[in-house]
Amino acid sequence: AILAQGTFQAPRLEEIPPVCSADRGLPTTPNFADACPPQACSQRFVAMGEIMEMKVSNKKPIGFYIRATASFLKGVEAREASEGREAVEAKAPLDEIKISGLGEAINTAVAAATSAEADGIGIITKVETQYPEMPSGRGCGQIMITVKRKC
């Protein structure tokens, strides 16, 4: 459904088709079938916890935000400290992430969200645009993209 002021609202959860090809009865690729077994996908409506918001900017390269989005949606495995690097503790994947960009960072936000969808780790469920007032008195374009993790 399309709402006023460039806001796109995704359908209610009951209306969302399954995101797993196994639930659709389509042939699955070996990699996707391993990552998404049919018994896991039949439970599509998991209670959402806290939604993480990632605010992107032009201070870091687009690749940084693409990797960060993938890490949030896939989770991070624990690694021991080695070769001058600190140890990394394991982090569970998030069910949903909001990616927001303001002004010239809109392209970065779109790139991070679309790469997650293209890589098959997430699906874009909501795109919202705004034109908020800035302290200088002028407005500036803003985008907020909600990406939900695929099973």
Question: Can you describe what's shown?
Answer:
This protein is 26% helix and 21% strand. It has 151 residues and is α+β, with helices and mostly antiparallel strands. The protein has a 5-stranded mixed β-sheet with strand order 1-4-5-3-2, with helices on one face. Strand 2 (52-56), helix 4 (62-74) and strand 3 (96-102) form a beta-alpha-beta unit. The longest helix is centred in the middle third of the chain and has 13 residues, at 62-74.
SSE layout and pairings?
Layout: E1 7-8, H1 21-24, H2 30-35, H3 38-41, E2 52-56, H4 62-74, E3 96-102, H5 106-118, E4 122-130, E5 142-149
Parallel strand pairs: 2-3
Antiparallel strand pairs: 1-4, 3-5, 4-5
State the total count of DSSP E strands: 5
Beta content comes to 15-25%
Termini separation (Å)? 24 Å
> Mind describing the biggest β-sheet?
5 strands, mixed
Mean pLDDT: 76
Q: What is the element string, with H for helices and E for strands?
A: EHHHEHEHEE
- Give the structural class: alpha+beta
Total helical elements = 5
Unreliable stretches covering 5 or more consecutive residues: 1-48
